[in-house]
Write a structure and sequence with these properties.
single chain; mainly beta; 28-stranded antiparallel beta sheet
């Protein structure tokens, strides 16, 4: 990093690419004047007499002009300058209970306005109702309503209690109700049906058990966590069958166990359900970048790696044929350089290799993906 005489950041680069740094310049009043990004190019900002950004011009020469109200809140944005095409408009203070708050935002696409309006606020400044309005021509073309209204109520602690959703197409209007426990954690969500019927938490707020859906199509999930780090270590998912009143072991859909390294990265996922026995294994480099991922023959361990010392494959397609063996390489900037999708039998002639190229021929956009080559 480098700084100017006023202590403002003026340059930043990476040891792997010193020739194409990020840079910033400032005017005499210390306001950001230009910002140069090796990939996105140069952005120039000009200010009005009250130090508010008035025009911003990007590397493609596109300029946006911003108009402010007397409180310096953005009021209108135009393309090119103060007489250009309107891009967006903002209003404030007009919603019930919303003094000092945004009332509406209007975005223009091809000259047509799309507006989101807040109809009112609670005493805690939470929206009680919003209306989304579409251009009539768009609504007619697509056969949808020209406006949609949403209503909200809240608990005494400010959490969403009810949300009234408008009818959309063939989906009828609906009121969603959310219930919470004494700690403010959601217990259930219902509307025209039970979407979340039950939730049980640990003393740390971790979800231990949940019930989704309504009879006779409920799904139960049970989870356990590492006592020291709090990571998810085991999760079981069961589906309901006719006549069930609670979890039945024979209705197991998925049973997954998870293992982690000291940095918190997932090193293994084991699936045991519905005739499937699968262990996925993952290794990382010192920077935490994924280097190898494979489905192991050994269902109890990943220590053997995807290949033995003699090159024999330790990866397997698994009982359902979804197994894989992938290896990754990166450049010094952290960009993916190579992906090798290895043949599960260890036949290197059948590997699928994808290489990644960055930057344009003229040296610009050095960190932008420009080409994929697969062999």
């Amino acid at each position: 990093y480098a700084y100017d005489a006023q202590g403002q950041l003026s340059k930043a680069d990476h040891s792997a690419d010193r020739d194409r740094p990020w840079s910033w310049t400032y005017d005499r009043r210390g306001r950001l004047d230009t910002a140069v990004d090796p990939d996105s190019g140069t952005t120039t900002t000009k200010y009005d007499s009250r130090d508010r950004p008035e025009t911003v011009t990007n590397s493609r020469g596109i300029t946006t002009w911003t108009e402010y109200d007397e409180l310096s809140r953005p009021k209108r944005q135009r393309l090119g300058g103060e007489t250009g095409t309107v891009l967006s408009e903002y209003t404030y203070d007009t919603a019930a209970g919303g003094k000092g708050l945004p009332s509406s935002v209007k975005r223009f696409t091809d000259g047509l306005p799309y507006e989101l309006k807040v109809d009112g606020f609670t005493s805690d400044y939470q929206p009680t109702s919003t209306t989304l309005s579409l251009p009539p021509s768009i609504a007619d073309t697509w056969g949808v309503a020209a406006s949609y209204k949403y209503d909200y109520t809240y608990t005494d602690t400010g959490q969403l209690k009810e949300a009234s959703l408008p009818a959309t197409g063939n989906v009828a209007a609906e009121k969603l109700v959310v219930r919470y426990d004494k700690d403010g954690l959601p217990l259930s969500v219902s509307g025209k049906d039970w979407y979340g019927a039950e939730a049980v938490y640990s003393s740390y707020g971790q979800l231990l058990r949940s019930t989704l859906g309504a009879q006779p199509n409920r799904v139960w999930t049970q989870s356990t966590y590492d006592e020291a780090g709090g990571e998810l270590t085991d999760q079981q998912v069961y589906r309901e069958k006719k006549g069930d009143t609670s979890v039945v072991g024979g209705n197991l859909v998925s049973h997954r166990s998870y293992w982690y390294n000291n940095a918190g990265g997932v090193t293994s996922i084991r699936e045991r359900s519905l005739g499937i026995e699968e262990r996925q294994c993952f290794t990382y480099d010192p920077l935490g970048q994924l280097t190898k991922a494979w489905t192991a023959k050994d269902q109890n361990s990943c220590t053997a790696g995807p290949a033995g010392p003699d090159g024999t494959s330790n990866a397997t397609a698994g009982t359902d044929g979804s197994g894989y063996w992938q290896e990754y390489e990166y450049d010094l900037l952290g960009n993916r350089k190579k992906l090798s999708e290895k043949n599960l039998a260890g036949d290197t002639t059948k590997d699928a290799v994808t290489t990644y190229a960055y930057g344009k021929a003229d040296g610009s956009q050095p960190r932008t993906l420009t080409k994929l080559t697969k062999k």
